[in-house]
Every structure is written in C-alpha cells, then in structure tokens.
Write a structure and sequence with these properties.
This protein has helices at 19-36, 60-67, and strands at residues 4-13, 44-51, 74-78, 89-98, 108-109. The protein is of the alpha/beta class.
Length: 123
C-alpha cells in the first residue's frame, strides 16, 4: 500500500502538575505511539497537544522538543474544563505519513487515560 496521511490519537495522565512529570509523560506517550505504529520521526507530519487546565507548569509541545522533535510542527491548546472530566490529562493528535491502513493504526491511552477509551482495552 502506498503512503498516505493518517491521524493518530493518544493520551496519558500525570500524578501532579510538575514539569518533569509532564516531560516524562509526553516522552512515554510518544515512544509508545511510535513503537506501536512502527513510525520513525521522519513520518511525523505534525502534532497537536492539549492539556487539562490543571496542568500549567510545562507545555507538552516543549516536552516533545526535548524528546527530539526539533523539526515537527507542534501546537498546544488547553482542554475544555468540563466538570467531572479526567484530571491531569495530556492528549495528542498526530498526523503521520504511513502505509498502514486506518484499521491498523494503534491509538494509545496510558495510565488513567484508558478511561477515555475503554473500547480499546481488548486490543
């Protein structure tokens, strides 16, 4: 199959609002997304990160830069403050170039973020 552009989702949670924890959480999330989808850094087109309002000490995009994504266009936004929503959550939407079919893409939800997509537990 020829290469095409696909969107890939992921999320993770951190224990508290701490720059080191946010960096570690983003790094873990990106590593698992890349490993589970057999991606190389050159196949990443762009990434959009969101963080819940209770995470203010670090930009997830900066954490991706520290991870080594120097030439990937990155954007951060704040997640909506919906009452009762999962706290301390970082989400990412990756745009990637891949030969994988849409149904072969593996979205990744780590730690408490699995509560956002329990339908993926059987994968």
């Amino acid at each position: 199959m020829p290469s095409t552009i696909r969107a890939l989702r992921g999320a993770t949670t951190v224990a508290k609002d701490d720059p080191l924890l946010i960096r570690a959480g983003v790094q873990e999330l990106l590593e698992v997304l890349m490993d589970d989808n057999d991606l190389t850094p050159g196949e990443i087109i762009s990434a959009v990160f969101t963080a819940t309002p209770d995470l203010q000490s670090e930009f997830p995009a900066h954490a991706a830069r520290v991870f080594g994504w120097d030439d990937v266009p990155l954007l951060c936004a704040q997640e909506l403050a919906v009452p009762g929503s999962l706290p301390r959550t970082i989400r990412v939407l990756l745009h990637v170039e891949t030969s994988r079919a849409r149904h072969e893409m593996r979205h990744v939800y780590l730690h408490d973020a699995i509560l956002l997509r329990q339908d993926l537990l059987s994968d």
